[in-house]
Amino acid sequence: MMKKIAGLVVAVAVMASCVERDKTGKLLDTPTAGKIKITVDESLKPLIDAEIQAFEGIYHNAHIEVIYLSEGEAIESLLNDSARLSIVTRRLVESEEKSLHDQTIVPHHLKMATGGIALIANRQYPDSVMTLDELKIILGGEIKTVTASRKRNDPTLSVVVFDHPNSGIVRFLRDSIMTFNELPEYCFAVENNSAVVEYVSNTPHALGLIDVTWISDRDDSTSNSFLNSIRVMAVSGDSGFYQPYQAYIAQKSYPLVRDIMMISREARSGLASGFMAFVASDKGQRIVLKSGLVPATMPIRIVEINHEPF
């Protein structure tokens, strides 16, 4: 018996010696255990909260501390080694990749989903559609021109609100819709996406810009409460006006579409790699699907319903 116990002690000691440690002797995290800090674009909060909850529910020894920031701040935290993983809506640009290469770090990009930006208005606003040309006019400082073309007396659009001065939403509009140095004075930030919804729901003349994740999950109570308080605008595509529904995002009929990227600076197979693998797996992609977005690594089924009588 004593020999068996001695053998067991030796085996445990050997296994313990195989666990990776850093230079100070501290245990390193593994793909399914440990603790890391990640930063995420605040506009993606509903989706990432769901992914982390599912991941930690399966791997009880894994703990992901998530900090929600503007897109610019989230990427900056990755560059200065304040976070192991950042989730944003773009890839790193050349200068950012060089910053990591100078630290002998090769960043790893992985697309997790395709989402989009929703235009929202107060429920008292009489119109439910907007063209891309009208959006460009508004961003260019001529909101009165759009208001006049609507031939409406009241209420009329007079302010545009978004989540943050370093917003990924504003960056997307600048990169993909039209070039501008500064937004007009009637465009301003109100802190975060939920604050945008609150402001628009209480302001008849406001147009808001939020990420689709805040209104796309019809099983989520917060999403439904937001939908009940605002109007989601349809935006012109190539052949008509489309709301940011999953099918229209998948087909890219909805014009304000953007990818969601996971970017890791991890040089070994640790918890960041494990979480990225989970999000890209069948379970993680089903969470994307349920959230009303388009998964990156699994097909979705689009069904067209014919409403004509037999």
What does this structure look like?
The chain is an alpha/beta fold and 310 residues long. The protein has 2 domains: 27-114 and 259-295, Periplasmic binding protein-like II (D-Maltodextrin-Binding Protein, domain 2, 3-Layer(aba) Sandwich); 115-257, D-Maltodextrin-Binding Protein, domain 2 (3-Layer(aba) Sandwich), CATH 3.40.190. Helices cover 38% and strands 22% of the residues. The protein has 12 helices and 13 strands. The chain has helices at 2-18, 45-58, 71-79, 94-101, 132-139, 143-150, 168-177, 193-201, 221-229, 246-251, 271-280, 282-290, and strands spanning 34-41, 62-69, 85-88, 108-122, 129-130, 159-162, 187-189, 206-211, 230-232, 234-236, 241-242, 257-264, 294-295. The strands form 2 sheets. Strands 1, 2, 3, 4, 6, 7, 8, 9, 12 and 13 form a 10-stranded mixed beta sheet that branches. A hairpin with a 4-residue loop joins strand 10 (234-236) and strand 11. Helix 5 crosses helix 6 (143-150). The protein starts with a helix and ends in a 15-residue tail after the last strand.
Specify the structural class: alpha/beta
Instruction: Measure the end-to-end span.
Output: 81 Å
* Helical content class: 25-40%
Q: What's the number of domains? A: 2
Can you tell me the CATH architecture of the largest domain? 3-Layer(aba) Sandwich
**CATH superfamily (homologous) name of the largest domain:** Periplasmic binding protein-like II
The strand count comes to 13
- The Rg value, from CA coordinates, equals 23 Å
Strand-residue fraction?
15-25%
Unreliably modeled segments: 4-18
Number of helices: 12
* Helix and strand pattern: HEHEHEHEEHHEHEHEHEEEHEHHE
Q: What is the CATH topology descriptor of the largest domain? A: D-Maltodextrin-Binding Protein, domain 2
Query: What CATH first level of the largest domain would be assigned?
Result: Alpha Beta
Q: Report the biggest beta sheet as strand number plus sense, adding barrel if it closes.
A: 10 strands, mixed
Provide the residue-averaged pLDDT. Answer: 88
